[in-house]
């Protein structure tokens, strides 16, 4: 009986040790700003397996990990050239310090994949992946990438290429631990995860892509069987996978030999470069989403746009609380709404040359028929190009029927618009648009999901519309949101509000990923406070109605300092225990 118990204890300790030795991508930072533990991250919801390596290099889980095909509700905004920082933890909930066992030495890489929807299921495995950064063994520092990440408090930072097109992306950090690569059977261990982002960009580059897991890696590749215990190491390390896209039109030159990898779309068309350039023409700045997080590019590290140096972030970074992204994160409930309200009246960003062309086609106006059309008035500088109205001239709408104008060379000449059967006058005010223009905009909205964006203008799909922070969300825990209870003025209403609060609390805990449920505990405090007011017969409420209760998560620098302090305390504790044992 005692022997069995002892064996069980040893087995439990062995399991505990193995769990500690693994790791998990838990938290995304965008330009140093913490998005919150688990926010925008696809994650294995099983706390017992979430930090374990992928089982099999040909498993679909190689794309985004276990449960990686399940989209989450939130999508984090970023900009072309932004610095993305990925936090890895041994203890996924951050209850103890540590990123991964230092014996798990090996390389790192980061991949991206453009997707139609950031929150959709079943869009991870397959074609579309391209590498933006990798590092194997740093011969100058004498360290593997994983060990450098450990030294950097579990943070791995890379820059998004500055020239890739806007849209929804999955971003995939990858660690490869080689400590068991020489075992029989060989066991190279991959640790991967995916974050959902929306990228604001004026670029149009489309890097060549590969398929994951097919044609990605196989167990015989030198990079997967590399012996980290040989003395001296057989350097340079043969990095596996494709070359990293460097944002300059060709792949980054590999500094180490690479194992061959098949690409399902090596280079589109007949291009010999690593990206396909969209149709030529200047692209105006994208209209920034109204709810997008504003980031300061000066706060990023010194890494280049190819992410060539992933360790220039502050060295003293932290343990991230299980708090969530603040109000700057955008609203999910607006995900299915069109952006007409945000853009149709904003002539400076939405009504442009491309839209003017669409409207001209709609009314069949042939500009070549106008032998001397008058110039648009400066007061209407942001209206579409097909609006010929100005302060001094009335335009003959009979041009719609193909009739040529009378001599209009004189700006003060009035053109008889009586020939226009029922045509409405154009409004000279820049803020107003015609009915035809509105109809054209609605038509664009209906078809924009099926047509590519114009190379000369931004379509409305170039603004984030899904994965936003829901309106009225006052508490965030990972990808769950809590909403204010209904106002009340009597006892029944008070207890009804309390019941609603506790219902949301259960949902919070049920949906909490392994990163933790600390903010669910804070939500419980709100529910308990409601109960107290009801018991005190204070039947007007709720207290602090509509107040956002989500704590602001620590930024990258503060996170680093907290982690550093935790490691110092851990070291001091070990020293004290050794001293105690020595005395006794």
TrEMBL record:
One Pfam family cited in the UniProt record for this chain: AA9
UniProt main location, coarse: secreted
Molecular-function GO term, any one: cellulose binding
Superkingdom to which the source organism belongs: Eukaryota
Protein name: AA9 family lytic polysaccharide monooxygenase
One GO term describing the cellular component: extracellular region
EC number: 1.14.99.56
Signal peptide range: 1-21
Role, per record: Lytic polysaccharide monooxygenase (LMPO) that depolymerizes crystalline and amorphous polysaccharides via the oxidation of scissile alpha- or beta-(1-4)-glycosidic bonds, yielding C1 and/or C4 oxidation products. Catalysis by LPMOs requires the reduction of the active-site copper from Cu(II) to Cu(I) by a reducing agent and H(2)O(2) or O(2) as a cosubstrate.
């Amino acid at each position: 009986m005692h022997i069995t118990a002892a064996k069980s204890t040893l087995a439990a300790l062995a399991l505990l040790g193995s769990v500690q030795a693994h790791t998990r991508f838990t938290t995304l930072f965008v330009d140093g700003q913490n998005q919150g533990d688990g926010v925008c991250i696809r994650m294995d919801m099983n706390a017992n397996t979430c930090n374990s390596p992928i089982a099999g290099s040909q498993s679909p889980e190689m794309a985004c990990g276990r449960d990686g095909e399940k989209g989450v509700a939130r999508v984090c905004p970023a900009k072309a050239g932004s610095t993305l920082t990925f936090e890895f933890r041994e203890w996924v909930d951050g209850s103890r310090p540590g990123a991964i066992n230092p014996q798990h030495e090996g390389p790192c890489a980061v991949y991206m994949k453009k997707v139609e929807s950031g929150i959709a299921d079943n869009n991870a495995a397959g074609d579309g992946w391209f590498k933006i950064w990798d590092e194997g063994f740093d011969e100058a520092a004498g360290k593997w990438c994983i060990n450098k990440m450990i030294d950097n408090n579990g943070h791995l930072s890379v820059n998004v290429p500055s020239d890739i097109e806007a849209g929804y992306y999955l971003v995939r950090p990858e660690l490869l631990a080689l400590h068991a690569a020489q075992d029989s059977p060989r066991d190279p261990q991959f640790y991967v995860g995916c974050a959902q982002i929306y990228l604001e960009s004026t670029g149009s580059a489309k890097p060549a892509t590969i398929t994951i897991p097919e044609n990605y890696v196989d167990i015989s590749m030198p990079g997967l069987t590399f012996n980290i215990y040989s003395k001296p190491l057989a350097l340079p390390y043969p990095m596996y996978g494709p070359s990293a896209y460097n944002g300059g039109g060709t792949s980054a030159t590999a500094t180490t030999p690479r194992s061959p990898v098949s690409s399902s779309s090596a280079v589109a068309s007949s291009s010999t470069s690593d990206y396909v350039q969209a149709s030529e023409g200047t692209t105006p700045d994208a209209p920034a989403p109204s709810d997008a997080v504003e980031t300061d590019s000066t706060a990023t590290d010194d890494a280049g746009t190819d992410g060539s140096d992933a360790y220039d972030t502050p060295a003293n970074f932290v343990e991230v609380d299980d708090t969530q992204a603040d109000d700057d994160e955008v609203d999910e409930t607006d995900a299915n709404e069109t952006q007409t309200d945000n853009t149709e009246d904003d002539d400076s960003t939405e009504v442009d040359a491309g839209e003017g062309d669409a409207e001209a086609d709609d009314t069949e106006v042939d500009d070549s028929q106008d032998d001397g059309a008058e110039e648009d008035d400066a007061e209407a500088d942001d209206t579409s190009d097909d609006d010929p109205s100005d302060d001094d001239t009335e335009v003959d709408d009979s041009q719609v029927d193909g009739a040529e104008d009378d001599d209009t060379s004189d700006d003060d000449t009035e053109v008889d618009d009586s020939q226009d059967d029922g045509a409405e006058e154009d409004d000279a005010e820049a803020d107003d648009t015609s009915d035809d223009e509105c109809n054209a905009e609605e038509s664009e909205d209906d078809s924009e999901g099926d047509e590519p964006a114009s190379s000369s203008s931004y379509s409305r799909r170039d603004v984030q519309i899904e994965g936003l922070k829901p309106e009225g969300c006052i508490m965030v825990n990972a990808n769950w949101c809590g909403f204010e209870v209904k106002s009340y003025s009597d006892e029944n209403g008070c207890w009804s509000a309390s019941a609603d609060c506790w219902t949301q609390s259960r949902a919070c805990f049920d949906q909490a990923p392994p990163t933790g449920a600390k903010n669910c505990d804070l939500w419980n405090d709100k529910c308990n406070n409601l109960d107290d007011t009801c018991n005190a017969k204070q039947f007007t409420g709720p207290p602090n109605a509509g107040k956002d209760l989500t704590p602001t998560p620590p930024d990258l620098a503060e996170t680093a300092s907290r982690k550093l302090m935790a490691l110092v305390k851990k070291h001091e504790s070990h020293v004290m225990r050794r001293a105690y044992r020595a005395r006794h």
